[in-house]
Write a structure and sequence with these properties.
Elements (H helix, E strand, L loop, with lengths): L7 E2 L2 H7 L5 H6 L5 E8 L8 E8 L4 E8 L10 H13 L4 E7 L5 H6 L3 E11 L11 E2 L5 H11 L2 H4 L11 E6 L2 E10 L4 E7 L6 H13 L5 E6 L6 H6 L3 E2 L3 E7 L1 H18 L17
Parallel strand pairs: 4-5, 10-11
Antiparallel strand pairs: 1-4, 2-3, 3-4, 5-13, 6-11, 6-12, 6-13, 7-8, 8-9, 9-10
Length: 297
């Protein structure tokens, strides 16, 4: 709590829905049964101040998220690498294949993350919506189980392959909506809810000519809940920018979405456990062994 006001948040959804990542609301969100987290403290030397970081994963997503680092006045810091390595190791033990982090493109921490193995795979703006009363809420309906295949096809056709390899395929939330045109899903939105706000991810087909009405209808249904509404818009969906400006939405600075892959570390752990089983287990032969030529790999 000593560094409560010196936190660098690296998870926009957590920050905007639950506030300060070391606040009570954010800490309570980690009690969700599908979530696991690990917090590490690094003291580079006996005379230096501590550095604190946290990584969290929500099952069954393939990625973990770097949620925060602190205290902010110590960054950039060349001694950050050991802490990030420790957090990445525990993310792998949670079952994650990569660790994600979000920060503004000009943030002083950017180069520290790059030196620790993080690379940029996407760029995004966060738009804060004004309170809207709309007549277009009927354009959306809740996503149903039978929509999953159509939503997945929309995701596959519009989201760049580099992003698909680092993030879970959609749909990945129960709180989601779809817009249909001629019985085909052409727009999708899913939300994270918190006491501080609602964070929405969007996928709109690039050929839509009613973006403004769709955004107005979505924002109108969500802002009626009395909490701020934030829309995450990736640069490959920049066709939405003009409509968002027309609706009076406020645009954030550009955020870099970064990833550190953990596949090799996971492979090492699996091999190590396999070697341990082989070395410590004694097998007793109970029947004769013969080669079966009919077996196929």
């Amino acid at each position: 709590m000593r560094y409560h006001d010196q936190v660098i948040s690296l998870d926009n959804s957590l920050r905007l829905t639950h506030g300060n990542p070391v606040g009570i609301a954010s800490l309570l969100s980690l009690l969700h049964p599908a979530k696991s987290s690990f917090t590490a403290v690094l003291r580079p030397s006996s005379n230096s101040p501590i550095i604190v970081g946290q990584v969290a994963r929500r099952a069954p997503e393939p990625s973990a998220r770097l949620t925060f680092l602190m205290p902010s006045h110590l960054f950039p810091n060349p001694q950050l690498a050991p802490l990030l390595d420790e957090l990445s190791c525990h993310a792998a033990e949670m079952g994650a294949f990569c660790v994600l982090a979000e920060l503004e493109e000009n943030h002083l921490l950017f180069e520290d993350l790059r030196r620790s193995g993080f690379t940029v795979y996407a760029w995004q703006h966060i738009w804060k919506m004004p309170e809207i009363k709309s007549d277009f809420c009927h354009l959306w309906r809740p996503a149903l189980e039978e929509d999953a295949f159509a939503v997945h096809n929309l995701y596959q056709s519009l989201v760049p392959p580099l992003i698909q390899g680092n993030e879970p395929s959609l749909p990945s939330r129960d709180t989601a909506w779809v817009h249909l045109y001629r019985d085909e899903v052409v727009a999708y939105a899913e939300a994270d809810y918190g006491l501080r706000g609602i964070y929405v991810r969007l996928i709109f087909h690039t050929d839509l000519d009613n973006n403004r009405e769709l955004l107005e209808g979505l924002a109108g249904s969500l802002t009626s809940m009395g909490r701020p509404v934030y829309l995450s818009v990736r640069l490959y969906q920049s066709q939405l920018d003009r409509s968002l400006h027309d609706l009076g939405a406020t645009e954030s600075p550009l955020f870099a979405v970064m990833v550190k892959h953990l596949t090799s570390r996971l492979r090492e752990q699996v091999l190590a456990k396999s070697r341990q089983r082989v070395e410590t287990t004694q097998v007793e032969t109970t029947s004769s062994m013969a080669r079966n030529t009919n077996l196929k790999e």
